[in-house]
Design a protein that fits this description.
homodimer, alpha/beta, five-stranded mixed β-sheet
Chain lengths: ~350, ~350
């Protein structure tokens, strides 16, 4: 298996990428690694750490796409950037299986869409992170930001792709697929959701109906389907609320002598809670439905995150997710009342 | 001032309503209270508590609308329900200023819309709760669920109404109004948000631009504008995440002897955090833009919540919010490119 990693664009680059590969090398000795980015900086980092790699190729790409760049412009104009060089290689070289990047989400999605393209039959690729739940399981959120405006057919494809991915990722026979809504009754929702509901019932998936955002992380569902705008608001609202509560608790621990003593005793238990809720630990978000595997890892990824993302890419390829999605989507019944134009 | 309270429909009814009025009677002695509901049960409760009221009228309405009822059907068919009787009295009796209910949100919104109607010029009334922020201030979320599908003109009216309400409620000169989006750049968003953005810039409000859901509770914004579907997902995602973190912390406190000792010392500080994050304590959500004041208080409201909601209704009326909204909306510049048909 051959993996290409964009070594720049994230907060801890290129260190986190190189350290992550070093960690992964032991467990995934059959992966050939390619990294793109400023060769001098990467080589300097490797020397400074005293690393030697069995299977690492460095491809020079001195430019970097930042979060301040306009994605559509950057993908076209920054031809020597670590991301564009990686995307071009992924596209041209059939032996490269997957790409990992910690860079600008917008640029990765735009680049993936324009340069790599969709699996035939998939109306829209979607960003699909795994989130922690109350029960300690994970739930997939699809789409979490690639498509701000969607049609029912897109949500049907998200449901299919999410179900197939969850099944392979966690070995579940019948992933419970739910539609994110403003109420649980069948008739609830905005126009998009109301029109999607009856279609999801016809798909060869375990569609369990509408759920409210409040119950999304209960652990009673495996795949949450929504448009990318709603998914983005859901994910970031969750992040914001977790940060708000954690901040309040930090404050509470400092609010009295008694609480300070309490803090000393509970610190370790709290660190565990914080870790459990940090969904970036589980790896990255695949841009699912692209014709080649692209995984966006968080901008603040550390070596451990990159290790987890490499493991995720390995599983994604080994399980042949893309082939199974192609098969699943292209065997769907035709909905006369649906079209994506 | 005359206030009508639907005494049934919530979890702790009619006790919470009657106890709440009892609490409020001291501080708001110039309010005349009317309650609707099963007269025998209400009178029985009052006798059992040994209460006497100076200014309380009980109107018999033996039926109750529950959350299992279909709102549009229930509002039309349950003519003797506590909510419908209250709405009918609010509509017909000009001396009644406002209505408070802890019942089904859907029924309150449907009833408010069908029986009471909009302030002239307001394209859509909206549900507008106040949420706690990191800085200890409050932020208004408008719309949080009344309108699942919106047009730019609706969001413009939400922005105007939210700004006017915030100004009067918290005495702020220039409330910072933000558009809830999937990114902060001006060009971000789905079609609705992208079309709304340039219009908000033309309104006589302090529009500060797009914000992401992650920053919505930072305390840097006073009014968050969005369609009701997105607002509902945002609010419930926040509730779900707070509940998830609190549950994890509860678990962490039990995870070791050390943590258990920590818990004993920190319990009081934690109770404070939980209280601060419970936005129901601040009162209810006005159905803002209705031609008469309607406030939905949480289904699990206790006497203290009802007290806070009565105080809120009092302020709403005293500050003449409805008149100011009418004035604000009807003095808006005309947008040729906007219509609400």
């Amino acid at each position: 298996m051959k993996l290409i990693l964009d070594a720049f664009g994230g907060d801890n680059c290129p260190g986190a990428i190189i350290d992550g590969i070093k960690l992964a090398e032991k467990d995934f000795s059959d992966i050939e690694y390619i990294v793109t980015g400023d060769k001098k900086i990467i080589e300097g980092y490797i020397v400074s750490k005293g690393y030697s790699f069995k299977n690492l190729e460095i491809v020079d790409a001195p430019d970097v796409i930042t979060c301040d760049d306009v994605p559509t412009v950057a993908i076209r104009s920054k031809k020597d950037s670590s991301l564009v060089v990686a995307l071009d290689m992924l596209k041209k070289d059939e032996t490269i299986d997957a790409l990992i990047s910690t860079g600008s989400t917008g640029a990765i999605l735009t680049g993936g869409f324009l340069k790599i393209g969709r699996i035939k039959g998939v109306s829209r690729p979607a960003l699909c992170p795994a989130l922690p739940t109350k029960k300690g399981t994970n739930v997939l959120l699809i789409d979490c930001g690639a498509n701000a405006d969607c049609k029912p057919i897109n949500l049907c494809h998200f449901a299919m792709m999410g179900s197939i991915y969850y099944k392979e990722l966690y070995g579940a026979e019948n992933p419970r697929v739910a539609l994110l809504n403003n109420g649980t009754e069948d008739s609830k929702g905005n126009e998009l959701v109301k029109n999607t509901f009856p279609l999801l019932k016809k798909l060869p998936i375990n569609f369990v109906g509408n759920i409210e955002a409040r119950d999304a992380l209960s652990g009673d569902y495996d795949v949450l389907v929504c448009d990318g705008f709603t998914g983005n608001v859901f994910l970031k609202a969750t992040e914001g609320a977790v940060s708000l509560v954690m901040g309040e608790i930090k404050g509470a621990f400092k609010s009295s002598l008694k609480a300070k003593i309490g803090a000393m005793f509970s610190l370790k238990a709290f660190k565990k809670v914080k870790d459990k809720l940090d969904y970036n630990k589980y790896g990255g978000s695949p841009f699912i439905g692209c014709s080649k595997t692209i995984i966006k890892s968080h901008g603040s990824s550390k070596a451990e995150t990159i290790y987890a993302t490499i493991a995720q890419a390995y599983k994604y390829q080994s399980a042949k997710i893309n082939e199974k999605i192609s098969e699943g989507i292209n065997n769907l019944p035709t909905f006369e009342d649906l079209s994506d134009d």
